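Hey, weird one. I pasted the Glutamate carboxypeptidase sequence into the form twice and got a warning about non-standard characters only the second time. First submission, copied straight from the form history:
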Amino acid sequence: MPRTEIGTSERLLEELKGWVLHETPTTDAAAVNGLIGKAEAELRAVGAAIERIPGRDGYGDTLIARTPGEGPPVVVAGHLDTVWDHGTLASSMPWRVEGEKAHGPGIYDMKAGSFSAFHSVREILRQKVKTKRPIILLLTPDEEVGSPTSRAPIERAATGARAVLIPEPAGAGGACVTARKGVGRFVMKVHGVSAHAGGNWQDGRSAVVPLARKILEIHALTDLASGTTTNVAPIWGGTRPNVVPPEAGCEIDCRVTSVPEGERIERLIHAMAGEADGIRIEVEGGMNRPPMVETPEIAALHEMARGIAAKHGYDLPKMHRGGGSDGNFTAAMGIPTLDGLGCTGAGAHAPHEHILWRDLAPRCATLCELLETIE
């Protein structure tokens, strides 16, 4: 069976540069759609069947590209949005290549991986390489804020699929990901009563004090031995030192390793809502991403990928990761999902973000061969 020619890491880096120089903060739908449009044009030109779902709620569009074939597909999904605001390239993180490292906002998380998925599908079609199964490629606009608009299209594409591949960044030692924690996000708002802090303190009800107590309760839910963590940030409250604060609030992040634990934490945090002594506490939110649990089918998919990687000259160990991804959704559906298939590097969401660019070609070749050969 002929294999797709991927090209050199130098060639891949040159085209990836254009993706990185096109800044795509999640909050700018037009910017994200600009890059979606470039990918769409390239995929149309080689014969992909295209569906473009218009964005909503301030987010960009979702692009779905399909290759010919019958039967359960192999799905590959990557996001084009980044956490970096416009101007980051000019102000603090310019594109640069220094030795083995290529730097730029979003290059590691996850433009290198999404580009590899796009490039693989484009070249499979352009070179007319026959695959064992049809391929569905999704390029999405909002993963960095929990995939509020792209989750449904991802789950629709994954329904009945043979496997799902997620080219999120590789972990330490180039590891791919076979399990992830589930993620919950909440907002707590506390409503008190305003008063002069000196003249009539007794008439006020500080919203900050009960919030502080709740923060300690939330922090106490952390259990490192079981893999449960909670984090409160940001927090806010009050207006001036001489005013009893009538409003306060915080955002809450929680990570869990099982669905029952997520349900337990969700119940406990929502139970903190209520009203007493002039104070009203509201809680919104819940579990956003279910845990991705390693199954025998996921382990088998990893072994297949590891064998392919060995042919391309590198090892592909596996790891369990605390951060969530779109792979959480598809794994929870029971679809074998292999994550972390993107490029090596470091610094996701950090100023030193970079990839090890010489790994672009071998990592992309492994992803491409998985797309070609999964039966």
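That's the output from the first submission. The warning seems to come from a hidden character in my clipboard, not from the data itself. The mean pLDDT is 97.
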